[in-house]
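Need a sequence for this fold. Nothing fancy.
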């Protein structure tokens, strides 16, 4: 039987690997506020609104969103461990029981009589649960249908093989991990945490434990076509207007009065511009040139190569084998050739070259290669996108 991404893995392992650091709750709220602000959503947007959060995980993010005072908050998840944590938050009063409701279910297979389908939601939040589904575009469209027709707002995450390239490289270390610990998930988790702790510590703003990151990114079986890029998400929702994103990569110089013409839209500009900037998602330390100057676009070629690389890594990951190490090395060589010498990508290129040099060591099941720059290399991972229902009165 086909495994459902997230749900079957999380349920069989009885995990919910998305705990946020709540030791400083005001800092947690500041992070969430910053996220929403970058998406064009102020706390006032949430006040008095009817919210649906799909895939709330631990409910940690709901705690912050709740401080914006929504009128109702429905949390939908299909993982019993998530539901348990969310219900505990409601029972303890951390989430207001008068306004919160929990529904158990797979959002991709909601029964026709589901309470979720009978309600209107002003804001639908679907964070970290749309990409990685078996068909991410269909998944996106199924969450979008839950947004109210009247100016409703959708917040989703997007990701692709470029922004995840550094993680995909790390996933290629899984066969070596298996060689050392065999088929024991507990030992695989422990060894992975030991290997990647020094990598993870290079992310100063990381807010979840390394073990959760390992469970989600190294040991989690990913679907074959997991990517949902920023532009493909925007293009898949013609009834929605781009509202904001992080990274905030659009600069719109159009005069607001030009929007009297209904042909002036919001999503076209955002979708087209993505190809010019996506290379900067390779490394969270890089940013597009401040002077706004354009350069030869490599976006489409980069996506193609990184996708091919991703498929090779997926094969190695599934087989727990380095039989394709030569092909993997050659593909990394192509990606390296494309990004080498491009300003802003020098650190990513160095790290990628170093990772390539470590392949023979990895192929021996040896995880002790003396990396210098690779552990500090992280891409932009997930991006966030907000959209609003295209206004029918425009
Ligand atoms: C990676 S976690 C993200 C949690 C949280 N939104 C966050 O960003 O920290 C994915 C969450 O979505 C839930 N989920 C994934 N696929 C789902 C589906 N088809 N139906 C319902 N919940 C799903 C998982 O159980 C989990 O709670």
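Here you go.
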């Amino acid at each position: 039987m086909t495994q459902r991404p997230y749900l079957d893995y999380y349920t069989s392992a009885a995990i919910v690997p998305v705990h946020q650091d709540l030791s400083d709750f005001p800092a947690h709220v500041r992070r969430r506020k910053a996220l929403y602000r970058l998406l064009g959503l102020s706390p006032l947007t949430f006040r008095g609104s009817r919210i649906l959060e799909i895939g709330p995980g631990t409910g940690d993010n709901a705690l912050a969103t709740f401080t914006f005072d929504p009128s109702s908050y429905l949390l939908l998840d299909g993982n019993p461990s998530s539901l348990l944590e969310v219900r505990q938050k409601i029972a303890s009063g951390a989430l207001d029981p008068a306004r919160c409701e929990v529904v158990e279910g797979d959002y991709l297979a909601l029964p026709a009589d589901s309470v979720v389908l009978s309600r209107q939601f002003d804001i639908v939040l679907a964070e970290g649960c749309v990409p990685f589904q078996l068909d991410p575009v269909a998944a996106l469209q199924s969450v979008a249908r839950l947004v109210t027709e009247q100016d409703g707002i959708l917040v989703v995450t997007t990701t692709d093989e470029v922004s995840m390239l550094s993680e995909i490289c790390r996933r290629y270390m899984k066969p070596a991990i298996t060689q050392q610990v065999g088929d024991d998930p507990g030992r695989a988790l422990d060894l992975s945490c030991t290997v990647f702790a020094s990598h993870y510590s290079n992310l100063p703003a990381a807010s979840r434990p390394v073990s959760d990151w390992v469970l989600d990114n190294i040991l989690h079986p990913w679907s074959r076509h997991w990517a949902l890029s920023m532009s493909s998400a925007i293009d898949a929702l013609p009834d929605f207007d781009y509202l904001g994103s992080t990274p905030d990569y659009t600069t719109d110089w159009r005069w607001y009065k030009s929007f009297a013409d209904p042909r002036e839209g919001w999503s076209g500009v955002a979708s087209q511009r993505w190809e010019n900037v996506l290379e900067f998602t390779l490394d969270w330390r890089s940013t597009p040139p401040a002077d706004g100057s354009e350069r030869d676009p490599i976006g489409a070629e980069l996506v193609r190569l990184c996708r091919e690389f991703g498929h090779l890594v997926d094969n190695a990951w599934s087989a727990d084998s380095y039989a394709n190490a030569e092909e993997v090395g050659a593909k990394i060589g192509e990606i390296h050739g494309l990004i080498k010498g491009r300003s802003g990508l020098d650190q990513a290129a160095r790290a990628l070259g170093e990772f390539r040099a470590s392949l023979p060591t990895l192929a021996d099941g040896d995880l002790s290669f003396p990396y210098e720059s690779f552990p500090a290399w992280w891409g932009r991972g997930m991006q966030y996108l907000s959209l609003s229902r295209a206004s029918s009165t425009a």
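For context: The first helix runs from residue 7 to 13.
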